[in-house]
Write a structure and sequence with these properties.
Shape: flat
Mean pLDDT: 77
Distance between the termini: 15 Å
Helix content: 55-70%
Largest sheet: none
Number of strands: 0
Number of domains: 1
Structural class: mainly alpha
Low-confidence stretches: none
């Protein structure tokens, strides 16, 4: 099998695992009181950093690029709104909405070369445009904002990789393997999360609202998210971000909505079921168009 064929298989398997875990990672927290989410987001990010530490050791500590931390800072900022989103509009709808705008921002920045990145080409651009368009179907303020932040999270890593090919760049010779940047990216997440949590403690006059029963579920949720993101890094490397973004950001909405239907009963009634199935068909068509645009 050619290297290209191996990359495609690796990329699509990684994307599938990422979709499953991203769509499920908040499930352990659903039945626990997480308050305003500030304590929870810090627990999540601590678990994320621990997974990154293990990955970094397995990879034998590749070079640490501080600029890659910026993507983690951006993600942690978007993550602040997750708990209010889930509490107000539900797990399934929340992930569908922020996933859609995550897809749009991440896909467009890679496809058109925003923020100083190299524009990425695909063999079937029309299919890629259709796939990205079908992946974006809804909108709601907090989820839209989170989605835009989430969609920008890989920009620093892709920027470093693109500029590593230029001899006059400070990033000349940087690794082309996306997973080498996981530790820096996740360190940015944990650092920013800690800053927000300390600011929250100050604002609460050193009397923050802590929820001990959410610690273990929070660690599990964070670990699932971290593993999913590692798979996303691998998918970016194997497929390119312009293909992986629409698939991985749209797909979790399907998984989360299934949890919402079969486990948490967030969606009920024949009309809502039919609407959800219609949305699934649109998202699945978008993901398939994006996938075939690479072949």
């Amino acid at each position: 099998m050619s290297n290209n064929g191996t990359d495609l298989i690796t990329g699509f398997i990684s994307s599938s695992v990422a979709v499953l875990l991203f769509g499920s990672n908040f499930v352990p927290l659903k039945k626990y009181d997480t308050g305003d989410g500030m304590f929870l987001q810090w627990v999540l990010c601590a678990a994320v950093w621990l997974v990154a530490l293990v990955v970094n050791l397995v990879l034998r500590c590749p070079k640490f690029w501080p600029f890659a931390m910026v993507g983690g800072c951006i993600w942690a900022t978007g993550n602040i709104a997750v708990v209010p989103i889930i509490k107000t509009i539900g797990l399934g709808l929340g992930i569908l909405i922020w996933g859609s705008f995550n897809a749009l921002t991440g896909w467009a920045s890679s496809r058109f070369g925003w923020f100083g990145m190299d524009a990425e080409e695909v063999s079937k651009p029309v299919l890629n445009y259709i796939g990205a368009g079908l992946s974006v179907v809804r909108g709601c303020s907090l989820a839209v904002i989170s989605g835009i932040f989430y969609g920008s999270t890989f920009v620093p890593v892709i920027y470093i990789k693109d500029h590593s090919k230029r001899n006059d760049s400070i990033y000349a010779g940087a690794s082309q393997y996306d997973l080498d940047y996981v530790f820096a990216h996740f360190s940015g997440i944990f650092l920013t999360s800690t800053v927000y949590f300390l600011a929250y403690c100050i604002a609460m006059k050193n009397n923050p609202k802590l929820y001990p029963e959410a610690v273990l579920p929070g660690f599990l949720s964070g670990a699932l998210w971290a593993i999913a993101t590692c798979c996303w890094f691998i998918a970016n490397h194997s497929l390119s971000a312009v293909v992986s973004f629409p698939i991985i950001t749209a797909g979790p909405g399907l998984i989360a909505a299934m949890w919402g239907v079969f486990k948490f009963k967030e969606i009920q009634g024949l009309q809502n079921y039919l609407l959800m199935i219609f949305a699934f068909c649109i998202i699945l068509t978008g993901a398939l168009c994006t996938a075939f645009s690479k072949i």
